[in-house]
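Study both lines:
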Amino acid sequence: MAEARVEIERTDAAVRVAVSGQLVVATLSAAQRALAGLLAELRGEFRARGPIRIDLSQVDQLDTAGAWLLVDLTGRLEAEGLSVAIENASPVQSSLIATVREAIPAKEPEIPAPRGFVDWVADLGRLTASSASGGLDMLGFLGRTLARFAALAIRPWRLRWTSTVFHMRAVGADAVPIVALMSFLIGVVLAFQGAEQLKQFGAGIFIVDLIAISVLRELGILLTAIIVAGRSGSAFTAAIGSMRMREEIDAMRTLGLDPIEVLVVPRVLALVIMMPILGFIADAMGLVGGLLMAWLQLDISPLMFMTRLHGEVSVWHYVVGLSKAPVFAVIVAVIGCYKGMTVAGNAESLGRNTSQAVVAAIFTVIAADALFSVFFALVGV
């Protein structure tokens, strides 16, 4: 196969680049070598010689690779501020070159770096608007979920109990070990730190009140919700997001199935049922950890600990703590499912949404716990 040849003719009026032979993929490397010095020459000495004409009258054969080489050369020369024209190409060659030029994606403009305070304020405004829009969308998703619950309350036979029980095991029974261990250690830490301070004032017996109120009212259910958000909330997003990537959710809609009823409602219901149970386990293990450390640090026997707990700590602390469980469960489940439903269809989006689901759920749970604390303080509970 005859290799492509390139000849450069320089005149005062223009520069003519004559290409001959076969400009195809098999001879592309030779053509590239022949054109290697053209850019360097035309940038300096021959810049003022007028337009550059690429003559294809002697080209016997041209394929897509050769057309790309010509388009790339033309683009590089034009980027240097030079005028380039391809001449004497056959209609087939011209059509091929035009097709290749249209197929090359346009370069995205570079986003300039922030230049000062105004740009920072603009970025903050865009972030605020995006967050507000996302919050409204999530509220709409919550509304649709509650509407499905209302419809299932009227027609309970439509509820998918098999899926619900499966998710109850996944979010509840499988989470018991980590929740129990975490709560036990929290009780140990609270008792150890509190004992060091209370011993200085001879008030070691009040360690029971400190542990019981902290664990039953706040830390037990709050830390349980945080663990569930990181464990189950991310699992909800990953599972639903993967189904969206594989277009299974679109297939459900094609079959006349409601994705919220099939995928979201069982997960939300399972978490609402299991969160109070996990909260109870967390409270019990937190008290056990505190009891053990109080026994070791302050010589408060288990019987004395239980007597003080029964006599001085109101049951309302336990009720206040567990009353938050269903709300935290709805927050974690809805955010996890919503983020799964908004996956864009690629692995990068799935990973980003899974991370965002955990962060958003934990933040919202802590914010809701703060509102609960203020509310219960105002009503005197």
Observations:
- The first strand starts at residue 5 and ends at 10.
- The chain has a mean pLDDT of 84.
- Residues 276 and 325 are 5 Å apart (CA to CA).
